[in-house]
Structure formats: C-alpha cells, structure tokens
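Appendix C reproduces, verbatim, an entry submitted by the partner laboratory led by Prof. M.T., so that reviewers can inspect both the input and the predicted structure.
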Amino acid sequence: MSLFISIDPGNKKCGLLLADIKSGNVIKAGISSLNRFSDVVALWNEEYHVSKIVIGNGTNCKYIEHELEKKNIFNFAYINETGSTLRARFRYWEIWPPNYFIRWLPKEILFPPDNLDAVVALILLEDFLKYNLNWPEKVNIKIWL
C-alpha cells in the first residue's frame, strides 16, 4: 500500500488524515491537540509504514516539523494551504450532503456542524496528489485532545 498522512497545523490543534493513495480511500481521520499529534502520527507511521507525510505550510508548520523530527520522522513535504479552510466547507458538503430541506440552500451560507480540521487535511492531501479521495462511511473523525 502507498499510505500518506496529511496534517493541517493550527494554533492549538491540527487535523490528521491517513489515506491509501492506491485505492484512493481515507483510512483514518481525526483532530488532535498540538501536544498529542506527534504520538498519533508516530503510531500511524509505525503501524502502516507511511510513504509520505504532507504538512500545510501555514500556522505552526515549523513546530510540526520539529516535533516529527524528534520522533525520527523525516519523510514529509509541505503544501500551500492558502484558502484550504474555505474549500473544506464545500468539500464537507460533498462528503456528507445536507438533509432534504437544507440541500436547497446555497452552500456559501451553510456552515458544517463539525470541526473541519480533518477535512482541511483531506484538502491538503488532495492538492498534493492532484486528485480527490473517497471518504468511506465507516471512517469517523476521532478526537485526541
């Protein structure tokens, strides 16, 4: 398998995503505090033999890099994350379409009910790969805070 991890770094938390790029499927996703993200990434990296880690180049990306290097993880690349949060709002509604009454409203005025950090990590990986991934129904967004 060709497995990639994507990280959307933030001020207090970050979005994490593990995907198999051969099958085009998301395997795991979550939101982690900055204190715990490196433990989750190290576990995924060891358990799944990850090929590459994609990191958004915005807020706290150097901190993310430093924490990964402390865990002897060096197989990462940066991706421009400009506009990714706004794009994640639209991608969220593609993955989880709104119910019957809300679906007729313009997507621009809809705010997803859940935290978008894991979906932003998805957007970053899709930008890196230059194609969209599938998010199977069985994959839930976990939270490690």
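The CA atoms of residues 96 and 137 lie 9 Å apart. Additional entries are available on request from the coordinating office.
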